[in-house]
Amino acid sequence: MNIGGTLIAGPAQGALQGHITVPGDKSMSHRSMMLGALADGITRIEGFLPGDDNFATAAMFEAMGAEVTWLNEEKTALEVKGVGLYGLKEPENVLDAGNSGTAARLITGILAGQDFHSVMVGDASLHSRPMARVADPVRAMGAKVDGREGGNKMPLSIRGGKLKGMDFVSPVASAQVKSCVLLAGLFADGETSVREPKATRDHTERMLPLFGQAVERVDALTCRLKPCGQLTAPQDVVQIPADPSSATFFAVAASIVEGSDVLLKSIGVNPRRDGWRRVMEGMQADLTLEAENTVGAEPVADIRVKATSLQGMKVNPQDIPDAIDEFPVLFVAAALSEGKFVLDDAEELRVKESDRIATMVAALQACGADIEEKEDGAIIHGQPSLQGGVTVNAHGDHRIAMAMAVAAQKMDKDIRIENAAAIATSFPSFVDLAQSIGMNVRWEET
Ligand code: S3P
Same structural domain for residues 354 and 323? Predict the structure, then answer.
């Protein structure tokens, strides 16, 4: 896929130092916008991620009647004037989820409960990603969903209506699927429960109660929602903590560049997002938690990262959903470690913004890494440094681009990372923040 934007990233010129506040959590920013749009009253949000994915969610709800007022130039603070649970209006045009699987899949649950017809499109990457995982359960609840490949591929056409609650056993460990079904459950008659094969991020369950909708945790893998018929804008500001998925790029960079010492400020440390830390601790990374606190319904902490010699390990399959977005940069950590790193049971990586197993294997191999592709993961033998002087392709996937910029800090020459513009979907300030701690990365001038 050619989406443009080329990064030039080269070896770090010295130790990485300083402290960084990364932008707000992408998953929570989506959910705050969605729940705010469906609530009675005005929801105030701070720490919102000003990324293209979250703007796509905002635009879709604006097209259905919610009003969004930005309160600062950076678009991290905003008010959402909600329409009430039953107040969305039929959009006059197609809804565009852009590059965002989270936007598309969660909104499918909401659209399934509407008494109108909607059509949702996205970019080429999103059009290649599986949607049956959400189309099937909302159909079982009573919505009509159609699309390419029998509704497995976008564009999707959704005609919502009266839904019935259900006990859904999800075949895939996916917070997007769980959240889609819970959101559809808000509009259903009776209770809806979701059971997952492995525990996934629980931001929807944590955030709904702030809007007055209880969610019962039945056991580690099951949650249940009895719709109360209304969401209410919280009295308090909804605060979004800093995104651990963005922080991990700097945690790996600081671990691999000798002498580095970087403090990552106020990062979300929800155990369901903390898999990256468990994997890195398994690799003997030097991570220290400081200033542990709570922001809204979520735990946060400052995380100090010091350079160390990373070791290989076998990833515990239970940790995979909790680190699902971090594997591109964890592969980089593994490629620059001592010993053997083994990941299996991670076939979900093949259906992210790109096929993240194939794209990372190609990019790292081009830089001389010893990485073997497996259907459901990879085997990586670490080495002290990598070879630059090549052009790699991020395939329009933000996390591949940022992971390779981290890898370049330990190369002998710089690399070009093509099709990197998608960094704007989740982390528009990545290059500036990376430079602020001494990383060697910049945009190629066109
Ligand atoms: C997300 C869930 C994960 C993750 C994505 C965000 C969410 O996807 O990869 O970036 O906000 O619910 P899956 O649920 O498909 O694993």
Answer: yes
Same domain for 340 and 381, yes or no, is yes
Domain holding 310, by residue range, is: 7-24+242-443
pLDDT tops 90 at residue 4: no
Q: How far is the CA of 175 from the centre of ligand 1 (A)?
A: 6
Same domain, 341 and 318: yes
pLDDT score at 436:
98
How much distance in Å is there from the Cα of 414 to the middle of ligand 1?
A: 32
> Is the pLDDT confidence value at 3 over 80?
no
Spatial distance between the Cα atoms of 238 and 233, rounded to a whole number of angstroms: 9
Is 234 strand, coil or helix? coil
Active site residues: 325
Helix (H, G, I), strand (E, B) or coil at 256: helix
Closest residue by Cα to atom 9, ligand 1, is 325
Amino acid type, 214: A
Tell me the per-residue pLDDT of 322-350, one tens digit each, with 9 for 90 and over. Answer: 999 999 999 999 999 999 999 999 999 99
Count: domains in the chain: 2
Residue with tokens 């701690």: 437
Atom of ligand 1 nearest to the CA of 30: 11
Ligand 1 binding site (Cβ under 6 Å of any ligand atom): 27, 102, 174-176, 179, 201, 324-325, 348
**Model pTM score:** 0.98
Mind listing the pLDDT tens digit for each residue in 48-85? Answer: 999 999 999 999 999 999 999 999 999 999 999 999 99
**The last residue of a domain, from among 204, 238, 272:** 238
Amino acid found at 364: L
